[in-house]
Design goal:
By secondary structure, the chain is an all-alpha fold. The chain has one domain. It contains two helices and no strands. The longest helix is centred in the C-terminal third of the chain and has 24 residues, at about 45-69. This is DUF3311 domain-containing protein.
């Protein structure tokens, strides 16, 4: 597969790809959400932190996509 440049092969070896490790490793750190408090709108820490992990994944994927495009 090539890029828009016909003579230049595509490479996936960008340092920006390391940013994609963040949304994989962050939810594995259980000490971050191993509590009931604080609560946000009545929801325990675990639930709204899961939504925050989704946002981190979307943001980091968007950054990597734009920087390696």
């Amino acid at each position: 597969m090539t890029t828009g440049d016909p003579g230049r092969p595509r490479t996936d070896r960008s340092p920006w790809n390391w940013l994609l490790v963040l949304p994989i490793v962050l939810p594995l750190l259980t000490f971050l959400y191993n509590a009931d408090e604080p609560r946000l709108l009545g929801f325990p820490l675990f639930y709204w932190l899961q939504i925050a992990f989704i946002v981190v994944g979307v943001v980091s994927t968007t950054i990597v996509y734009r920087m390696t495009k």
